[in-house]
Design brief:
Length: 222
């Protein structure tokens, strides 16, 4: 009798242990499932295309505005579909030396929006020119003038760039137009007059006739 009770007690204890182990395993699986369900998804990658501002897009894109990377980068992270965004996209391609591509972007806009895009392009090119690199910014300034012909600072920088590469006819036209619009006695006007004087003294090629440099009051300069 005692042996039977002893065996029954041992069996009961073993059964209880098995039940406890099984419940623990079920609880662990349930906990694991619940963690997987409530885990938040990873954050979406933040790139230039995720911004709504053309300026923000350009700030992220500017390191890639070079001939090697600009096409691929702008294809996968396009600029915002606004006049500002188009202006910054054109500026990016212009910085990469792809002036025709930049022109195509602006020409693809409505006529009323092209001036705003040219303004953005000018604001990107102007610091480069003011830093003294008229040669690098000249093509961008010439593009600005196609849509904003009375921008006197674009006239100046385009003219100085053309003078640097001996494109005297275009340089004279732009620098004279600049002096007609800008009358302040500062370094810009002095540089423009000096460039015109040097072009006149350098005996330009046949077919180019530089007019004498005349002050606005009609008195010829010596």
């Amino acid at each position: 009798m005692n042996r039977f009770l002893y065996f029954a007690g041992f069996a009961y204890i073993a059964l209880c242990g098995a039940i406890v182990v099984r419940e623990l395993e079920i609880g662990q699986r349930g906990t694991s499932s619940r963690v997987e369900i409530v885990a938040p998804p990873p954050p979406a990658p933040q790139g230039a295309g995720a911004t709504n501002s053309g300026a923000q897009w350009f700030a992220a894109m500017k390191p890639f505005c070079n001939p090697v990377e600009v096409e691929v980068r702008t294809r996968f992270t396009p600029a915002p579909q606004t006049s500002e965004g188009a202006g910054y996209a054109a500026a990016c391609f212009a910085l990469a030396g792809k002036i025709d591509r930049a022109r195509g972007i602006i020409n693809g806009m409505r006529n009323g929006d092209r001036g705003a895009a040219a303004n953005v392009l000018f604001n990107v090119a102007h610091p480069v020119a003011d830093a003294g690199d008229d040669l690098a910014s000249g093509a961008m300034m010439a593009l600005v003038l196609e849509y904003w012909p009375n921008n006197y600072m674009a006239l100046y920088h385009a003219g100085m760039s053309e003078y640097a590469v001996a494109q005297y006819a275009a340089a004279e036209r732009h620098l004279r137009s600049f002096l007609e619009m800008y009358t302040a006695a500062d370094g810009f006007t002095e540089n423009a007059r000096q460039a015109l004087g040097r072009m006149r003294a350098e005996k330009p090629s046949e077919g180019l006739r530089l007019r004498p440099l005349v002050e606005r009051d009609g008195a010829a300069r010596p």
